[in-house]
Amino acid sequence: MSSQMLQDTNLPETRKAKRYEVIDNSINRMLQLLDEILFLGRTEADRFQLVPQSLNLVEFCNELIEAIELSTTSECRIIFTRDSESILAEMDALLLQRILTNLLTNAIKYSPQGSNVDLDLICHPDTVTFQIRDRGLGIPLDEQQHLFEPFYRASNVGAVEGTGLGLAIVKKCVDIQAGEIQFTSQEGVGTTFTITLPLHQS
Asked: For residues 103 and 136, is the Cβ–Cβ distance under 8 A?
């Protein structure tokens, strides 16, 4: 299919560029799906080992937000609030990155252009809470029980692209770290995810 799209040498450069973009996007979606399936397979087979490392969570979140905003064409902004400028933790950086990246990109993807997505970081004596809040589609009440099932997508997402694996991965990442995840959602109002993780993992 990809080779056929590029065989017409008489196409204007703008059309060629568009076709390259379509192919590139398709490849990226396939790679994302493969990565997510392999990751879930590793966690299901209990072949995933926690690798905690020293992190400054404020710096970690700032760098992640910058990377996400640079990689999206959306006009949504991530508003980051925290109760300290330095929150130190011993956590698995890759698992935390998967959690926050999935939740923040979902929040942006399902939110109106120009709206804000909130990330709140709240430190407790032994745990830390990440709260991600959007003003997007919301999840139908009768479908919320299925939210963390692999390949499940809500009926109101329309043509918004997705694999249906992101939230299943988030739940696995939270469970591996002995954390908790909760959410509240209302159609037409938005969704809030609250993740609480141990500050010092071993």
From this structure: no
